[in-house]
Amino acid sequence: METEGNKMKKVLFATTALIATASVAAADVRLSGYGRFGLDYNDANDSNINGVSDTTITSRLRLQFDMSAETDMGVAFDARFRAQAESRDNNPGGAVFNGARFGVVWEGLRVNVGNIIGAVENMPGTYLETRTAGIGIDGAGFFSHVGNVNNEFFNWDAYSSAGVGVNGVEALYTYEGFVGHISYSDRNETIAANNNGGFDRAAIMLTYSWNDFGVAAAYQNSGAMWEDKTLVSGWYDGGNWGARIAYADNDGISKWGLYGNIDIGAASNLVLFVTSEDSVDQADVNAGRGDNRVASTSASCAAGTTCTDTEGETYGINWSYDLGGGASFETGYRRASNDNDTFQAGVYFSF
Amino acid sequence: METEGNKMKKVLFATTALIATASVAAADVRLSGYGRFGLDYNDANDSNINGVSDTTITSRLRLQFDMSAETDMGVAFDARFRAQAESRDNNPGGAVFNGARFGVVWEGLRVNVGNIIGAVENMPGTYLETRTAGIGIDGAGFFSHVGNVNNEFFNWDAYSSAGVGVNGVEALYTYEGFVGHISYSDRNETIAANNNGGFDRAAIMLTYSWNDFGVAAAYQNSGAMWEDKTLVSGWYDGGNWGARIAYADNDGISKWGLYGNIDIGAASNLVLFVTSEDSVDQADVNAGRGDNRVASTSASCAAGTTCTDTEGETYGINWSYDLGGGASFETGYRRASNDNDTFQAGVYFSF
Amino acid sequence: METEGNKMKKVLFATTALIATASVAAADVRLSGYGRFGLDYNDANDSNINGVSDTTITSRLRLQFDMSAETDMGVAFDARFRAQAESRDNNPGGAVFNGARFGVVWEGLRVNVGNIIGAVENMPGTYLETRTAGIGIDGAGFFSHVGNVNNEFFNWDAYSSAGVGVNGVEALYTYEGFVGHISYSDRNETIAANNNGGFDRAAIMLTYSWNDFGVAAAYQNSGAMWEDKTLVSGWYDGGNWGARIAYADNDGISKWGLYGNIDIGAASNLVLFVTSEDSVDQADVNAGRGDNRVASTSASCAAGTTCTDTEGETYGINWSYDLGGGASFETGYRRASNDNDTFQAGVYFSF
């Protein structure tokens, strides 16, 4: 997700103009990022079943490189990649770079190419009002997002922090409280599969905010199964407290979410949510589209775990305490609709 | 290639002396690089044949790290590596580092170790006078280089931006308009192959420029087939326009190139070229050295493409429009001697 | 090892406070590192036996990223990873990042998570007083360390520069001349091995220095064979010269080391050492614990080399000449207890 990166103040390295005639232009490289680490209790892990202790270290170190140049006419070009090291379930990895995103910006218009943000991903009112955009230290699986259903999570175009992304194109237009966003990606087809191996995704997102209120909607059309989806959200953000509602129709599977957040004292903030995912529409089942919820091969059914339906209610709570200087203590619990319990606590610091 | 990196103004991070006694010495890390992205029409791609659309995104993001230290006596040590993300034929990759090059510089003399530049690679008058050093956004295969023949491209020691390089050694000496360059690399032998698995390359390059004129020549001797080569070039660069001629004998295969470039108006520049590659010498064929040109396993015969002889004429045109601030619009067309057509357009920006 | 990194002066990028209320806090990213390259003569290599020339290029380029933030209360959070490119035995690699280490610091206390330093690794009086912490340009196998015996080298928790590390936790406490350090790591078990596949290591290190003298001791308890060990060391450092003694009991295998260093003139320094490794205790052999010294699969028995016992004496000498500006010339010879001879010479520069 982009949310975290965008919040950070960048480290600006002053540079001089590259070309003699470009007296007002500048080019630079900025480094920023965050570290987070803590303990993750996850009842899906068990030393005797999958060899992973139920309590493990979860951590991430992200260093983001933002590069840019500006033409004489004021058109800005930029590019971004990240080096990120991550440990989940006590399985650490060395840092790796992700795929690059390139952008052109002119006044309210931005066009991106490569590892794009994605229109659905960028929709306001879908991620939690927390530092991880989910619960706890690592997001705890992001069951809070109404687009995540049917053991098919993140089946929309989104900026990839650890991979190469979708190599798509997108355009964003901002005018006062309004943002419009369209995105498109196309996967290469293989010769064998010809017209089946590759697929494309097209998405649109519209949002408008006024005073303390906002609404948003997004739609994705995809050549792959289970990926056509419509999302809507609305919110109130009064500064000290906020409330939000979100709904998605995920190729026939409905999911609702209710969210609230409130400041407690000078430095801490509480976030609560509940979501409810409907069962697969009988028409879909009748049409032979199947039920992916218990498929052992789906993304959320990890080896060694008991893969269960994600139908039903998920609820969670997150408490954040601001330590100043870009650091905070974060802790959160959530009980997912597949009966998975996680509890996490740790620290988060930006640089 | 080094050309692009050397043109850029570096982002200098001021540092202080590392050792108390080294009052005039300094050490630093500099970050620079470029991004480029655009569309590539390539008639070698076809969704119905190799599963790749004939028009795809081509992009690269390069972030270069230049590190250096200077001794009390004025001898400079430096080192370089790059992190680079690239997408060709709609197949994006995450950024990876290449192999490191280490250098020692004292007055006009430089000695490098590791991922060396290479004497043949560094020869002036061989690459195009464009930002990519080839045609379009990604160089379009660099058919314009007279050392690239017989479907055996880049078979000389050269700095590798995406790999580890040849782990060689080289020395460069500059005195006024003269540059001399010798390089050497040796590949490890395997036990099985013993004296056959590994091979070495030795090369020398000499160049001299005076007023608006210059000449250069290079020679490589290699233990591997098709790699002994001699190159010569000569050029005139009058500022607003230039002309160049180059010739190479590539282990018996001759290739000629004619090149011209001219400024158009205040901000744009046009580059044109034509090359002509001779057939393999009959003596080589008689001697059983074979004809590599139609070998389906050679480097330029990618899977899914019709691999044809590179004998014959290649011509190309590139148009560049300077946007200021280190950014430019680039577009180019070339028709290669193997009947491959490419047309590319996009932007290029340095930082 | 951490030694080298800690010696370097960091490149500090000034940044501003991240959060408006954090008026005294700061967050930054610092880049530092070193390059070293030279020639390595190693009589274990032979073109006719293992296909590697006995004299090869040895090189390393390390770029370290240190990221940090400080809370309003003065608690500091930090994180580190490195991108490192290395060539040994003429086999170069592109730079890769290692695993991340996260830290929390408050006054004399530091707690680290992830790619930890390790209590045994951090014990003073165990590594040589050289820039590589070993002999020559690349340490020459670190036979000088009394913990390295039985062809089982570095079998303790230690910061990994090229890998992900042990994903452990550790605490360090410093008070005047005293440092105490405890570390712990636990490898995930696999389902098949259940209680056998994974193992844990716990270690403690204590050291105290006063005036020009110091002593240190460390102990590691491990679930893996050959890894229980106790180390002690004592040293005198008079500025112009120093002497040191170290001893370790490595799961029944004793090793002694004697070390001396002396300045010669204004810029050069000489380091000498001798170590003596005992044979495996007969009780161990009788108990069926076996003798790992001639096992062809152990870490130090590389393919293509004649793997011999490491029992016996190793001695070495290293000469360093300070060139100023963070650069030095380094050369060293050592004859290892397994009859392996290496001689190396080259340069080393920090940035």
From TrEMBL, chains A, B, C:
Leader sequence segment: 1-26
Domain of life of the source: Bacteria
Domain Porin: 14-341
Keyword DNA repair: no
Gene3D superfamilies: Porin (2.40.160.10)
InterPro entries xref list: Gram_neg_porin_domain, Porin_dom_sf
TM segment ranges: none
Key words, A-Z: Signal
One Pfam family here: Porin_4
Protein name from the UniProt record: Porin
